[in-house]
Structure formats: structure tokens, C-alpha cells
């Protein structure tokens, strides 16, 4: 018996490059819909029309009306900016703190420094995030900026832990010791090498974190923290219009799809950017 | 670890006299992206014989070996004919056996998984005992004594050699008639090596065909019956081992077999004045969790003089790497002093000044892991001169390029990423990176282990040239390989963390005093005697 020459896989091997370009295009296409709506939506929203009955499909409204009878399409146009801004800002802020803390924790050989940096965060981790937000909100009544800060704070502990765990792995490699033998600066070692090595893990984490943040903002809004409970906000829309899901699904489906597009698109873009050509694991020749 | 027994061979197919091959490869060609990594290879594995594939790394040995298991690199285009005997699969003992043993399961469970399927047809109450009997038989065939105690352990509680034999036992339990052993002795000291040779010889004696993939020529010569010399995916020469060794026909074979160590070519420095590096009362510890700190190294006194080269020899686990890392400041957990020109060096590399960093440089065993995989090699090498000698980027790159090409790296290769360079090229680049600091002491930690003969000789020659050209550099060569140690002026022998003997190289090599050194020399001599070299 002979091996049949397998041409199937060698063909796919040759199309790695076009495939990468395709990934970029797909990611861009998916993410551009919610981003364009978020940025340009308010310009095209126009004046508010008269309120109709709650949860009625059609009747001059593209996607029907929402729980208080407003036009869903107009709410979608208006609701992107606060969501995208709050969520993106909160995620970015969380990493702004988590990255240095995690990298210092991973690269230092002083146990006390690592403990001082990361133990307090563990305490924060033990408190349920929503409880913490409600506690602070009952004292301070934060606005949108305050909410972004709060959500970021809640996300710092686990982001820092993930950064530290991923970085500790990279920091134990001989490459880091070699950099130290070269007298390399902390910045180049930590950010240039360790940070670069853990980029893939961070990108994956950032994608899921963005989704988590979006829904934390939505839940907070639902409870009246940071965002008005009837605000034009995709996340709030999903929450408030749930009651009419079977009567007028568009009021939930459209904003939910946009949020999904935002996170999926960013994940696809990260993947495309970090894709290593010619290194596709887990793909084996089928047994002949 | 074992694969495919779906291609059956008609046993009478072979026209030659003698036993039928249990595995055969005919005209194998494996191609990736239009580039052939194996081309036109014929191989016959006869029962009870050892067939060796030798060649430099990247010559297609492993691809050929894995073809016997029916495994090919992803995206490969394969043509040719691979046959394996019908009555047993091919077993594979990889270079790193730990990677194929499930770390979460005991050895007994790993073997029982295989044995259980073989006793299905027995009555239920007999199965357990029968499986047990098979397992014990396989373990004793794989030469693993104390089987009872061993079965209760997890793979990580075994030594590398024991792991290797457990994988072997798995293959034997499956009834493998062909065993492919991939670099079984790479990175092992002489004593371990000779044990592996005995073990594979015993395997062949039981009528199993062994396919040995190795660049360790001593082992090949001691074991193999048939040798295939590979280069760039092609078999350039094949034949019985004696013929090949005595009268190699191909130029490449001659080059590969020319194992004579290059001599240092210069006399040790006559002045025994102030040592450049001096170690006093060094006690190094390892912290491993539950047991608290364990002392792994005790060195009362060790000195390195300017222009001198010192080889530190010992088995794996003898503490030689720890010694080197203490000197380089990479192992902080030690007592005692390391003096550079009479002034104590800070224990940690982080506390050393630039001048101190530049003075003591360290070359890592695993060059691939010691380079940043995202940046071109030239940039990384040049940074040494920028950081440690204050050169500007331009002149640092110029000097790096000169050093790299001086060490035999093609100029176009220096602009590539580390993953695009071969192991030998990367090790040269790592040497260049250390040399750019203009070090007074250069510590080379097993930099030639895991390289094939030709590449190793190239690196050792580069080191010899370096010692000749830069009279002020002292070299510390950490090695388990006495061949490489011959380069040095002095040899220090470590065993179980103790410095058991040190002295001039010729004295240690010709009249060792300590029993351990004697046994190390004898094993090497025995390996060489088997090869008749």
C-alpha cells in the first residue's frame, strides 16, 4: 500500500497570506459598523419624533419602538457614543494600571514588592464588582466619567493578575537573563520583550474584558448608577427592552448585535495583527 | 507515541536474502512550500539490527524517522512508499520523553491504558493480573528495575533516563517491532550515554529493529549495523558501519567523521599572577518548595587567570551550571565571595555596574531561548555595545556585523529573526553578543551540546581562535563532554556539588586521581573503544 500524495494541505499552506488579509478585512468590516454608528450616529439622529405606543413594530419606525415608545433606530444612533466611550475608556484605564503593576510584579526579585503591589488587589477581587459599584455609588453618585473610573477599578485586580501570570512565564525565560547580562534598561526588558511576548494573551483578555465591561456598565445603568435608566445607550437598551423581547425583538437584538460586533470585531483585528504566518498549530495531516 | 499499523507489508516481498525488513521506506520525498526536506530516501529496518541516520541538524533525520510512524510535518506534500510490518506498530522514543507522558497520571495508569485493551478477551477476573504481568514484562524488557516502586510515581518524579525507558516500555507493550529513537543521548553525560547504548543494544538483541536518529557519532559507531549519512534531505552515503568509518566515500561523510578535537594551538599563559576571577567558599542553594533550601554546590576555592581557559566537567545535576550562574550573577542564592580583580562582585546581575557586567559575560546553553524572537539578531547583538560600552547605535551595529561575520555568520543571515537561523548560527550570534562587551571572563554553558559534530567543531574552533586573538580573555567552559574539555588549559571536575579534582588538562585527562574522574574517563574510553577510534 502506498501513501497517496496529499495535495490538499499544501494548497492551503500557500494561501496563508491572502487568508491573513481576509482576516483583516473581516475584522475591519465587523468593527466598522458599530464604530461608525457610535461616532456619526448622533449627527444623523435628528429631532425626537412623537412618542408612540411601547413595543410596536413598524408604523414608520424602522425597528419599531422601545419600552417607552421611542423610535429604536434613533436610540441606536444616539446610544453608541456613551457605550463605546465608557467601555473603551474603562478597559484602557484598567490596563493602564494593571500593566505596570503586573509587569513590576513579574520582573522583580523582591518578594515584598510583589506582595505589596498585588495583595491589596486580591482584597478588591474578593468583593463582588457590582456590590462595590453600588457601595461607592450610594456615597458619591458618580457621573459617566465616575462610572468609567469605577468600572476600571473593579477590573484592575484580575487584569493585573493575568498580566502578572503571563509575564512571569516570559520573565523566567533565558532571553530576559540575556537582556540583563547586556545591561538592558528596565523599560526595554519589561515592555520591549516581556510585554511584546504576552501581547497575544493580553489581546485575548482585552476582548473578553471589553464585553464584560460593557455589560457591567449596562447593569449599573439598570440600577441607576452613572447612566440615566432611560438613557440612549446600547447596553441600557438591551437591559430595559428585555421585557418586550417577544413582542418587539428589534429593540434588544439591534443594540445587542452592535455590542457583539464591537467585541468580535476587535478580537478579529487583534488576531489578524498577531497572526504568525506559517505557524499553525493543531493542524495535522489526516491519516491516510 | 505509537502510530499506524494500517500499512501492511507482504513479508515475502523483499528479494534480498536474510530476514525480511519490518519497516521499509522507498523513495520518500517530503516537501513543504515546494522545498524538499527529505528527498529520495530509501531505508530498510531489519529485525535485530540497528539502522542509524546521521547528519547535521536540519538534514531530515527526524522527518524520515517520523515517516515510519506515518507522521509528517503539517502542510507537507508526501510521495513515496512507507511499509511497516503488519504484526506490530512502530514505537517512537522522542528526544524529550517528558513531553509525551501525561504528567497528571501515574506510570501504572499510563501503562495500564495500553495493557487493558490487550486482555479484553480474557475472563473478567483474570484481566487485572494478566495486564499486570504484561506491564511488568514490558518494564523489565525496557530495563527498568524496581518496577513496583516506579509504577506508583508520576512522570515528573522520574529522571530523564527513566522517562525514556517508560516510553520504551509503552512501545514494547504495544508489541512494536520497530523502535525509532530520536537523539536519545543528546545532552547526556558519558555515563548516562553508555547506559543508553547498552539499553538500545539489548533491545536489538531481542529481535527488534531499532532506527537511531543521532548526531552523536560515538553512539552511532558503538550501536549501529547500518548507517545512512544524510545531508540536506538526501542520503549521501550508506553502508555497514565499519566500512563507512574506515573508508568513507563521500566528502561530507569524511568531514562528519573527522572527530579529532582541535587543539588549543597555544600555550597556557606562563604568568600565574593575580587571578582575574576568584571564587572563595562558595555555597549555592536551590529553593524547591516543600524541602526548603538544598545545598547544590560547595566550592572552597577556584581561580581563573587572565588568558587562561578552564573547563568545568561533570554529569548533569552536578552543579556546574549553578557555579557558572553564580559567577554571572544569575543565581543569587549563595554565600561566599566572587572577586573580580580583587574586588567582590555583587551577587545579583541587577546590582552590577556596567563595567562589571561587561567584564563577566555568560553564553547560554539554549541559544534559541536566549534571543528575543521578535527582533532581528543583529539588533540584539548590537545592544550589548550600546548599553555596556556606550557606543552609539550606528557604530555598535557596524561592530556587531564585523564580529558576527568574523565568527562565520553570513552577513545576510544577521538581519533575520532568530527563528530563521539554525542552532549553530544562533550559538555563534550568542557568542558575538557576549564578545561585544569586550569581556574579561567569558562563561560558556554547554554551548555545544545539542549540536552536531560539524557545527560543534566550528564553534569550538571559533572559541580557540578567540583565545588566540584576544589574549586577555579568560574562558570558562562548562561541559559534560570531555572532547570539548580538551580545549582548555585546566579542568575542574564537579560531582554532586563538590569540586572533586582540578588541575592541568593533560594531567586530568591522562592520570586522573579522584575515583569519579577515573570512572568518567573510563566510560568515555569504553565508548571510544567500542567505536574502535
TrEMBL record, chain A:
Show where the ABC transmembrane type-1 domain sits.
84-270
Q: How does the record say this protein sits in the membrane?
A: Multi-pass membrane protein
| Transmembrane regions | 24-45, 83-107, 127-154, 210-229, 249-270
PROSITE patterns in alphabetical order:
ABC_TM1
What keywords were assigned to this record? Cell membrane, Membrane, Transmembrane, Transmembrane helix, Transport
Keyword set includes Methyltransferase: no
Which subcellular locations apply to this protein? Cell membrane
**PANTHER family, from UniProt?**
OLIGOPEPTIDE TRANSPORT SYSTEM PERMEASE PROTEIN APPC (PTHR43386), PEPTIDE ABC TRANSPORTER PERMEASE PROTEIN (PTHR43386:SF25)
Q: Which family does it belong to?
A: Belongs to the binding-protein-dependent transport system permease family.
Tell me the protein's name.
Peptide ABC transporter permease
What is the organism field in this record?
A: Streptomyces nigrescens
TrEMBL record, chain B:
Key word Amino-acid biosynthesis present: no
Asked whether the UniProt record includes Heme among its keywords, one would answer no
List, for all copies, the residue spans of the domain called ABC transporter: 23-257, 277-521
Q: Where is it localised?
A: Cell membrane
- State the UniProt keywords alphabetically: ATP-binding, Cell inner membrane, Cell membrane, Membrane, Nucleotide-binding, Translocase, Transport
Membrane topology according to the record: Peripheral membrane protein
- Endpoints of the signal sequence: none
Classification via PANTHER family: ATPASE AAA-TYPE CORE DOMAIN-CONTAINING PROTEIN, OLIGOPEPTIDE TRANSPORT ATP-BINDING PROTEIN APPD
Q: What is this protein called?
A: ABC transporter ATP-binding protein
Give the source species: Streptomyces nigrescens
